[in-house]
Amino acid sequence: MRILVLEDDQPLALGLIQTLQAEQYVVDHFNTVQLGLQAVSQEHYDLVLLDLGLPDADGFSFLKEFRKQQVTPVLILTARDSIDDKIQGLDLGADDYLPKPFDINELQARMRALLRRSTGQARNALEYGDVQIDTQSRQVMYQGKAINLARREYNLLEVLIQNQGKVMSRHSLEQSLYSWQDDIESNALEVHIHNLRKKLYSKLITTIRGVGYTVAAL
Ligand code: CA
User: Distance from the CA of 148 to the center of ligand 1, in angstroms?
Assistant: First the structure.
């Protein structure tokens, strides 16, 4: 899952990034509305954490522009907690609103809830044939046996199963695995796919030559 953090309070942003990375989210961080809009026009995110008081413009103006193009969940994090601000945020298409200071565990629970809703899951669980995934603990079971996956192998498996039946291009898979700062080795994706086939089963993922990969719809 790739998260965009738009926040100009540097210590808060760094704390958020560290916590979210420890939870295995891929995180990009920017501190202005302009950079945020540029990022969402080029990259795909699964969720946006949005501060309202940004130096170049109001976070609401980001939200307005963003909602013209995308339905990705937006969670507003702000010191402004007047009812009017909340109403305006929700009316402009924010999905949730958490006043600062917030408890990091509550933030994470709300993020999970938004991500579940946007992927159509009612619980923190995904099932695909004999493969079971607990998306909160990131535990994967295959035929009742726990499978040990590296961070990116897990992320890749989750994205493919959530999009079962669709062919995922290399580019879109890489987008969900890496942030802007990461160096991507040209064969990294193939290596992760190879490992998933080995650790789970070889027919799980089909290569579509020249296009990308797919997990068949069940
Ligand atoms: Ca701010």
Answer: 40
pTM attached to this predicted model: 0.81
- Model pLDDT for residues 53-76, shown as the tens digit of each residue: 999 999 999 999 999 989 999 999
115 and 153 fall within a common domain: no
Residue 2 burial (C-beta neighbours within 10 Å; 0-12, 13-18, 19+): buried
The one-letter amino acid at 70: Q
- Total count of domains within the chain: 2
Cβ(71)–Cβ(29) below 8 Å: no
Q: Ligand 1 centroid to 51 CA: how many Å?
A: 6
Ligand 1 geometric centre to CA of 100 (Å): 10
Tell me the CA–centroid distance for residue 77 and ligand 1, in Å. 9
Q: How far is the CA of 9 from the centre of ligand 1 (A)?
A: 6
> Is 125 a domain residue?
no
Q: Are 146 and 139 spatial neighbours (Cβ–Cβ below 8 Å)?
A: yes
Q: What is the pLDDT of residues 85-133, one digit of tens each?
A: 999 999 999 999 999 999 999 999 999 999 998 888 778 889 999 999 9
Do the domain assignments include residue 25? yes
* Cα 32 to middle of ligand 1, angstroms: 9
Domain of 165, CATH number, reads 1.10.10.10
Q: Which domain holds residue 177?
A: 149-214
